[in-house]
Amino acid sequence: MSAYAARRAALVARMEPGAVAFLATAPEAVRNGDSEYPYRHDSAFFYLTGFTEPESALVLVAARGDQPARAILFCREKNPEREIWDGLRYGPAAAQAEFGVEAFPVAALDDKLVELLADAPALYCRLARDERLDGQLRRWFDGVRAKSRSGIVAPPQLRDLVPLVDEMRVVKDEGEQAVMLRAGQISAAAHRRAMAATRPGMFEYELEAELLYEFRKNGAQFPAYTPIVASGANSCILHYNSNNRRMQDGDLVLIDAGCELDGYASDITRTWPVNGRFSAPQRELYELVLAAQQAAFDAILPGRTFHGAHDAAVKVLAQGMLDTGLLDKNTAGTLDDVIANKAYTAFYMHGTSHWLGMDVHDTGAYRDASLPDKPSRPLVEGVVLTVEPGIYVRPGPGVPERYWHIGIRIEDDVVVTAHGPRVLTDDVPKAVADIERLILQGA
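The line above is the sequence of Xaa-Pro aminopeptidase; the predicted C-alpha cells follow.
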C-alpha cells in the first residue's frame, strides 16, 4: 500500500494545514429491475486508496501544529448474511490492517465528519459535480454550526478537490506503467485474434466476441469502453458501436477496443481488409495514416508540446489529401492554406491524442491555463497518451469515388520517455504485409 500512502501524502501536502478532504467512491447503478451493472469504483478514489468496494469514502485531514495528518476510510461493516449473497466485505478492522488507514463503518460517516470539520479552515471536495454530496454537506455543516455556542465554527471555505487529484494522475509511476503495459499486451493479443478470425460473411459482433474472450481469458476485468467493430461504411462513423452488420468481401473493418486491467485502460485501433487483401485505394490511404502516426511519434519527447503530435500528423494527412485528390488543389490551395483553413477536417475531424490511464480519456489539462494565451502544455517523462490519426471518406461532391466508405484509424498507447515514445501496444501488426499475412494465415 506504499504507493497509495505516498499519493495521499502528496495530496495532503497541497492542502491548507488542518483542512479536510472528502472523496466518495462511485455508487452502484441499477441496470433494470433488480439487476445492477457490474460495479466499477471511482478512479480518483481508487488512485488514493486501492479500495474497490462500493459504499466507501475517504477523508484526509492535513497536519496542523502538533496534529499529524490523518487518512480515514469509511466502508461497509462485515455482514455474514450479505457475504453469502454478494461476496467478501473487508469491514473496518480488516480494511485498516490491509490498506494502512484508519477505518470506520460507513454508517458513522455523518457523525465523524461533523467532528472532523469543527474549526477546519477548508473542506476540499467535488464541487458542482455530485448531487449526492449536496445533502451531505448541509447535514455536516448544520451539525458543526449547532456547536457554535461553544465557539466552534464550520469551514469558511469550500475548495474543489478534483483539479488537485487530476494533475497528480497525469504522470504515471513505474507500477502504473507496468499495469498499462500488460493491459496493452492483452489488448494487442485480442486484436491479433480478431484479425486471424476475420472472414467475409461474418457479423461484426462475432469479432467483438473474439476480443472479449481474449480480454477475460488473460485476466482483464472489463472492456475499457464499448468496443467499436465497424465495417464498410460504418468505419466512417467515429463512435459506431452497434456491431451488427454482416461484413462483405472488399470491406475494411476498423476495430477500436481495449481492455481494463486492475483499474487501468488500454486503447488500440487497427484497420484491416475483411478478405485479407487491401485494395489499391485502401492501401493508399492506409499508408498515409500510418505515415501520419509515425510523424506524430517523432514529435513526442519531453519538452515538446502535447499538441505537437497532432500538428505533425495533420501536416502529413493534409498533404496526402491534396496528393490523392480528396482535396482539390484549385480550391483548397496549398498545404499551408489547407491547415490554416482546416479544410482537412472534412476527412480528419478529431484530435490525434488524449491522456490515458485509469480513465480512457484520462484526467489532466491539455493547455496551461496559467499563461495568457493558454499554450499547449509541455510533455514530461511518465505521461501516457494515445496516438491515433485517421481518415474517413464519405461520399460527396468532388470526392473521388474510389475512396468512398473508406474509414481508417491506427491507434497506439505510448509513454513519454527521454528517448522518445515507448509504445505499449506494438504487439499487434500494423504494416500492410504483416496484417495481410496474419489474416491469410488465420484462414
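Note on the example: The longest strand covers residues 70-75. The CA atoms of residues 178 and 424 lie 10 Å apart.
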